Amino acid sequence: MSEAQTVRLSYEDGLRAVELAREAIESYVRHGQREQPGSMREAFYQRTGALVRIESTRGRGSLRGCAGSYQSSDQLGHVIVDSAIAAASEDSCGSELNAAELGSVAVSACIVREVLLTDDPLADLELGRHGVAIDAGNRGGWLYPTIPVENDWSANEYLDRTCRKAGLAPTAWRDDDAMVVLFGGEVFREREPNGSVEHLSNL
Q: Helix, strand, or coil here: 21?
């Protein structure tokens, strides 16, 4: 089953998505406040999922937060803000982002444009294009679309690691009662903290 999203972002839309995510992160970290999207670009009124990722550039670097939803009934602008705040909170990677880190983290945003519920993940999964979400029983989890390319994972390893993140056995994605969802989207990310934004157009 495939659910097509109508969202198509221009580079300017993607640039604003990353800016909005950073503004929301900084407002939350510095003042404990939720940033309002304000006057949004036209694309941001559409209803689709979004994910925000925060990566440290200090030393060898590390993931500082990643949050969001691949499906949402809310307007995209609000989903970006809420995802950014969740990524910066202690619930994401176990410790809340602090103000001293703001100048050394890079922000990226994935805007979901298609969702596919698959019964053959290995056949349908395209590395570098799809994020993966797995639900089984009362456990679930997902991984960001760029992760397998960054880590040189095979499709099997990507699916196994998504299961581990969900608290499941690594091969749980093969079980008949597991629900595997692939989501594709537009990824925009800062090349460096507060720097220029690149569009990963291969997704």
A: helix
Cα angle 158-135-61, degrees, rounded to a multiple of 5: 40
The interaxial angle of helices 11-31 and 76-88, nearest 10 deg, is 40
Reported pTM: 0.90
Q: Which is nearest to 116 in space by CA: 92, 137, 145, 152?
A: 145
CB 203 within 8 A of CB 131: no
The number of beta carbons lying within 10 Å of the beta carbon of residue 30 is: 11
Average pLDDT of the chain, as a whole number: 90
What SS3 state is found at 69? strand
Distance of CA 62 to the CA centre of its chain: 16
Q: 119 Cβ partners below 8 Å, 6+ apart? A: 180
Could you report the per-residue pLDDT of 13-60, keeping only the tens digit for each?
999 999 999 999 999 999 998 888 777 788 899 999 999 999 999 876
Q: How confident is the model at residue 2 (pLDDT cuts 50, 70, 90)?
A: very low
The answer to whether 34 and 76 are in contact (CB under 8 A) is: no
Nearest by Cα to 106 from 187, 41, 45: 187
Give burial (CB, 10 Å; 0-12/13-18/19+) of 89: middle
